[in-house]
Amino acid sequence: MASAPPTRLAFLAISMVLLSSVAMAADFVVGGDQGWKLDFDYEEWAQDKVFRVGDNLLFNYDNTKHNVVKVNGTQFQNCSFTPENEILSNGKDTITLKTEGKKWYICGKPTHCADHQMKLTINVQAEAPAPAPSSAHSLMASLSGVLIFAIAAIFA
Ligand SMILES: *[C@@H]1O[C@H](CO)[C@@H](O)[C@H](O)[C@H]1NC(C)=O
Ligand SMILES: *[C@@H]1O[C@H](CO)[C@@H](O)[C@H](O)[C@H]1NC(C)=O
Ligand SMILES: [Cu+2]
């Protein structure tokens, strides 16, 4: 059986150890490649995703055409907002999800929410459980294990 070069194996092993020990916050680009635009199904986009406290929502859009308004559930149903609502209009806006529960976002331009589905609602869950308390220790332990493996592999 042909085997991968030892250095590549060692690199892979070290990467896996590092990845598995860090609980990372996720970035979600709203709408993926399509971004924030007319007539995209954001309900469908959101349905298979798990959003957690600490994750980021990134809204990418043409800011001459759209914006992002943080609204509440009633306003979301109604596609309406008031001057008190926070409006983002950069075109590249990051929203860090700070609390659990439902969040609602709409485009504030006339008809975009009501007639063109520019509305996103998500349910934010608690932060992912932190790694075990002894993670620093076990990380070092795993790393030294991997190093021994790597050295063994290189000289094999
Ligand atoms: C949503 O915001 C509007 C405007 O501030 C307010 O009148 C309404 O009661 C709010 N609804 C909820 C469910 O918080
Ligand atoms: C619903 O939208 C209409 C039209 O924009 C507005 O007049 C009304 O105040 C809104 N109601 C709520 C509860 O936001
Ligand atoms: Cu819009």
Automatic annotation (TrEMBL):
The keyword S-adenosyl-L-methionine does not apply. It holds the Pfam family Cu_bind_like. GO terms for molecular function: metal ion binding. Residues 26-126 form the Phytocyanin domain. Residues 1-25 form the signal peptide. The chain crosses the membrane at residues 136-155. GO terms for biological process: response to symbiotic fungus. The keyword DNA-binding does not apply. SUPFAM superfamilies: Cupredoxins. It comes from the Eukaryota. Its main location: membrane. This is Phytocyanin domain-containing protein. It comes from Flemingia macrophylla. The lineage of its organism: Eukaryota, Viridiplantae, Streptophyta, Embryophyta, Tracheophyta.
